[in-house]
Every structure is written in structure tokens, then in C-alpha cells.
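Quick one, C-alpha cells below:
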């Protein structure tokens, strides 16, 4: 069984080809340099860029997989959630190919696909249910209870921004570039490596007080909120600029470290507490922020203390928006669902 998968939910044009659960080829065209000019993803610009490159990406992926369109048995395409103009580009191309070749097309939910990225390069038996999954990305910050592969229930979520959006806004406050997540994490790591020397020189040592609060909300519940934390960062940035006229490199590293640490502590704690509350032995991380090393390390540490299994995507590329996660989601839908008597219509 050959599967062609499309992912165009935001600003990455990604196409993959699978043979059963095995990834044969994937190519992704990023628009980051284009959106750096506006500092945010402009939906109409993203859609135009998808349209400009999607057939080149398709051609290259088919060539890399040594596959012809006529060999494709199923087409998987992200249909929601995402930027509507971007989604339309992918669904239009996928639907057209489906119509011409009379190939079945399967609509895929973007967040569900991120969760299924954890099945890439893993045997199905390696992931045991029930489990609790934290999805963290630029547009979503949710907690799911999963009794099985197809039994997903959203149990908690962010009251305002998602992690990625909060990181982008904090980066913008400090005059950094888009996307904010990677650069804030990089500065945070740099500060952590130099902080012992810095703190000893300042006389504060290990007793240094955290700059920003931990937003716990109700501890027995596991919702999230980042708006108050962002406000605290803004006040700190404004205060330092008023004192020095501008942020120094050390200021940026310290604020990045303190902000990231404040977010990671809350997310990791609430994920593990949710697992204990639901009486499960496995926790899972999904979404492009699953690439964050500090978050993974913190969750790993807490899981080890509680004897929980921790699962996250095998490769960094599987954390990002990518067609491989769409393809593996499609594979398992075909494997377990009966499509023969159903007419599938792509709906946004």
C-alpha cells in the first residue's frame, strides 16, 4: 500500500510518500525567511508560497521515493486546524489528484497527526495505552487522555496563548527574530552554561530568586495560562530598557532562561500530575515544541521519579509540521477503519 501525504497547515509545504508504515521519502519547503520580514505568518502570503512550490516538492518527493502518482493507493491531507488559505492549497492539490486518479482521499486533523508522529519509526506495540499526551505548538497547548489509538479526549488546554505563540511574543519584546521558540531556547541554554560564573560574581549563588512567577492556576486541574507570564516579561524588559536604554546580550539570555524555565516547570509538573490523576503509566509529548530539550529533560526527570514511561518523537524533524506525521496517521486509519462503503469529502 502506497500513501501520499500533504501537510500545508501553516508555512511549511511538506509532502511524504509511505509504503505501509515505512517512510520512503519526504521533502519540506520552509517559508521562515519570507515571514521574517513581517515577523508573523501572513496567511495570504503563506498560501501563495505554498502554491508556488507545492508541485516542485511533489515532483522531488515522487522521484526520491521512486514512485509514480499512478502507484498511490491513498492520499492523506491535513484539513484542520490551521490557516485556511494554506489548508486550501494542500486540499485542492490533493483533491485534484484524487479525482483524476480515482484514489481515496483521507482528511487528517493536524493535532492528531502530531500525536501520531510518535508512531514514526516505532512498532505499534511500543506504545501502550491508556496514556496522557501533551500537545504543545504555536497554535495549540492541550492535554489529551488516550484510552486507545482512536479514543482521544481533550481534558485540559491553555486559557489563552499556546507555548509557541508566547515564545514568539517574548522574543519580539526583546527584539529577536521569528520564530521565537528556537532563539529563546538557544539563549536560555547559553545562559544556563554561563550562569554559575555569573551568579557567583553577583554574590547570589544558588539562592537567586526567579524573575518570573509560575502560573499554576488550580493545581488539581491541568489547564494552562501564559498571558500573565508574558506581562511579567514585558514589565521586566521595559524596566531594564528604562535603566540601560537597551537590553544587553546578558539581559536577553537571562530573560530567555527565566521565561523558559517558568513555562517548562509548569508544563512538566502538570503533565505528570495528570498521568497520576488518570492512573496511567505512560505520558506522551507531541507538537513542534516537543523538540525543546529543557522540556523533555524536565519531563524525563519527573517521570523517572514516578516510574512513568515517557514517549516523544524519535527525530527532531518529526516534531515540526511535516507530512510524515500525516502519512503515518493515514496508514493507521486505513489499517483500522473500513473505507470501502464510505465517501470521503474533505471539509475544512
Amino acid at each position: 500500500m502506497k500513501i501520499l501525504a500533504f501537510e500545508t497547515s501553516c508555512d511549511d509545504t511538506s509532502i511524504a510518500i509511505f509504503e505501509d508504515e515505512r517512510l520512503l521519502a519526504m521533502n519540506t519547503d520552509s517559508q521562515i525567511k519570507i515571514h521574517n520580514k513581517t515577523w508573523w505568518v501572513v496567511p495570504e502570503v503563506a498560501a501563495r508560497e505554498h502554491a508556488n512550490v507545492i508541485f516542485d516538492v511533489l515532483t522531488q518527493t515522487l522521484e526520491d521515493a521512486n514512485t509514480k502518482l499512478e502507484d498511490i493507493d491513498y492520499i492523506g491531507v491535513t484539513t484542520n486546524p490551521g490557516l485556511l488559505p494554506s489548508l486550501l492549497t494542500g486540499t485542492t492539490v490533493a483533491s485534484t489528484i484524487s479525482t483524476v486518479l480515482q484514489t481515496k482521499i483521507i482528511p487528517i486533523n493536524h493535532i492528531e497527526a502530531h500525536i501520531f508522529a510518535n508512531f514514526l519509526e516505532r512498532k505499534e506495540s511500543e506504545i501502550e495505552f491508556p496514556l496522557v499526551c501533551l500537545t504543545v505548538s504555536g497554535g495549540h497547548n492541550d492535554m489529551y487522555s488516550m484510552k486507545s489509538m482512536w479514543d482521544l479526549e481533550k481534558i485540559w488546554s491553555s486559557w489563552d496563548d499556546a507555548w509557541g505563540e508566547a515564545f514568539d511574543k517574548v522574543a519580539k519584546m526583546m527584539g529577536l527574530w521569528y520564530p521565537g521558540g528556537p532563539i529563546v531556547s538557544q539563549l536560555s541554554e547559553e545562559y544556563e552554561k554561563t550562569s554559575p560564573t555569573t551568579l557567583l560574581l553577583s554574590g547570589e549563588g544558588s539562592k537567586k530568586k526567579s524573575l518570573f512567577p509560575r502560573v499554576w492556576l488550580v493545581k488539581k486541574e491541568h489547564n494552562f495560562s501564559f498571558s500573565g507570564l508574558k506581562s511579567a516579561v514585558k514589565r521586566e524588559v521595559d524596566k531594564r530598557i528604562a535603566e540601560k536604554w537597551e537590553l544587553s546580550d546578558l539581559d536577553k539570555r537571562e530573560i530567555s532562561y527565566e521565561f523558559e524555565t517558568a513555562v517548562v516547570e509548569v508544563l512538566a509538573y502538570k503533565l505528570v500530575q495528570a498521568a497520576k490523576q488518570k492512573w496511567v503509566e505512560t505520558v506522551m509529548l507531541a507538537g513542534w515544541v516537543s523538540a525543546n530539550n529543557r522540556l523533555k529533560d524536565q519531563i524525563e526527570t519527573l517521570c523517572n521519579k514516578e516510574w512513568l514511561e515517557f514517549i516523544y518523537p524519535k527525530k527532531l524533524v518529526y516534531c515540526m509540521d511535516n507530512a510524515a506525521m500525516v502519512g503515518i496517521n493515514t496508514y493507521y486509519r486505513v489499517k483500522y477503519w473500513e473505507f470501502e462503503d464510505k465517501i470521503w469529502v474533505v471539509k475544512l
